[in-house]
Amino acid sequence: MNSIPVVVLSGFLGSGKTTVLNHLLGNRGGTRIGVVVNDFGSIEVDAMSVAGQVGDSMVSLGGGCLCCAVDGSELDAYLEKLADPVHRIDVIVIEASGLAEPQEMVRMLVANENPAVRYGGMVQIVDAAEFDATRARHPETDRHLAVADLVVLNKTDRVDAAERAGIEGALAALCAPGIPVVGADHGRIDPELLFDRRPWTETRGQLSFEDLLAQAHDHDHDRDGEGEHDGDHADHAHTAYESTEFVSEQALSPRRFIDFLDRRPAGLYRIKGFVYFGVPGHEERYEVHAVGRFLRFAPQPWGRGEPRLTQLVLIGAGTDGPALLRELEACREAEPRHARPESMWGVLRYVHRPAEIDREPDPEHADAEPEHDAEPEPEHDAEPDLDPESEEF
């Protein structure tokens, strides 16, 4: 069973979380997004602003702050509802209260025991125009930034180049090393930075729901005076990013690939795809999902007759595509069957519940049944480091 990634949008009141969420919903293609809106207070303004776009797939945790719950049972119930196969949800996005403690939210998601969902990373939204004022009002800002996997510097259109450079320098000092900072105005970021977009449903005659959303988005875009050059897509969010693709018929060395991931540049926002290591006892394919510094591997069975390939897509800005490809080429392993099982420990640190993988036997690769009987190497943390001062939660 493929689990559904759960992405958290965090940020203080007014930073633009709802704007970012609405942009993701309006530009999701055919991807089905489940939304959890966590409003603070009894009037759920945020919930009303997105309800028309997600319908029955939206649930609201109104009347309080999610992180203040005694346990995660309420969140677990909502996630279980959204993960029901009847909804065919591809990704779940939680818009956290502007007063939420992201550490607590991440803890609840990491501790969730529902195999149908998995933590997919935390995105911190920052208001560029109010950056200094926000830090003055909320000193905990620094702590929140320290646990983010990806930072969106929103409202960059409201600051000049010098001020933006100063903010980005401050963020580099406040965030963990290598945390990517994505600039945006009006919450426009490419959804591909957070999740996969499915192709739009082809329609004949009557417009689909996605078609209507796209028309409304284009209308608003034109009304704001920003749609004059839509024909060449010059101002679309995805044009700010580069995509690098890597395919290898040869297995990759797990140690060298983990080293590559540890060294990945801050401009590399997302990595997705499948990796074949071919190490005895671990010959299944490993789905890799990285958002910013968040990393997760998910072992999956190969389809019958499916070629053993590594297929990766790397999305970033200001990255050196040829250099990334050279580094990945250097990860190739000529004799994976001679590798010792402990070479996989670094990868297994990022695997959630490996014992619960569903597998379909493949007669051609009957010896590929993985074994997860070794303890991983201590230098790699499987879960996000929630406290920069301590290794404990």
Measured as a percent range, the helix fraction is: 25-40%
Q: Total helix count?
A: 11
The dominant shape is: globular
Strand order of the largest sheet: 3-2-4-1-5-6-7
* Residue-averaged pLDDT: 78
Largest sheet: 7 strands, parallel
What proportion of the residues form beta strands (DSSP E)?
15-25%
Which sequence of SSEs, written as H and E, runs from N to C?
EHEHEHEHEHHEHEHEHEEEEHH
Helix-strand makeup class: alpha/beta
Instruction: Please state the CA-atom Rg, rounded to the nearest Å.
Output: 21 Å
Task: Explain what this protein looks like in three dimensions.
This protein has 393 residues and is an alpha/beta fold. The protein contains eleven helices and twelve strands. The strands form two sheets. Strands 3-2-4-1-5-6-7 form a seven-stranded parallel sheet, sandwiched between helices. A five-stranded antiparallel sheet has the order 8-12-9-10-11, covered by helices on one side. The longest helix is centred in the middle third of the chain and has 15 residues, at 209-223. It is globular, with a radius of gyration of 21 Å.
Brief descriptors of the model:
seven-stranded parallel beta sheet, five-stranded antiparallel beta sheet, alpha/beta, disordered C terminus, 11 helices, 393 residues
In short:
This protein is α/β, with parallel strands linked by helices. It has 11 helices and 12 strands.
Helix and strand arrangement:
Layout: E1 4-10, H1 17-26, E2 33-37, H2 45-54, E3 58-60, H3 73-82, E4 91-95, H4 102-111, E5 117-127, H5 131-137, H6 141-146, E6 150-154, H7 161-174, E7 181-183, H8 209-223, E8 242-248, H9 254-262, E9 268-276, E10 285-291, E11 294-300, E12 310-316, H10 321-329, H11 345-348
Parallel strand pairs: 1-4, 1-5, 2-3, 2-4, 5-6, 6-7
Antiparallel strand pairs: 8-12, 9-10, 9-12, 10-11
Helix pairs in contact: 1-2
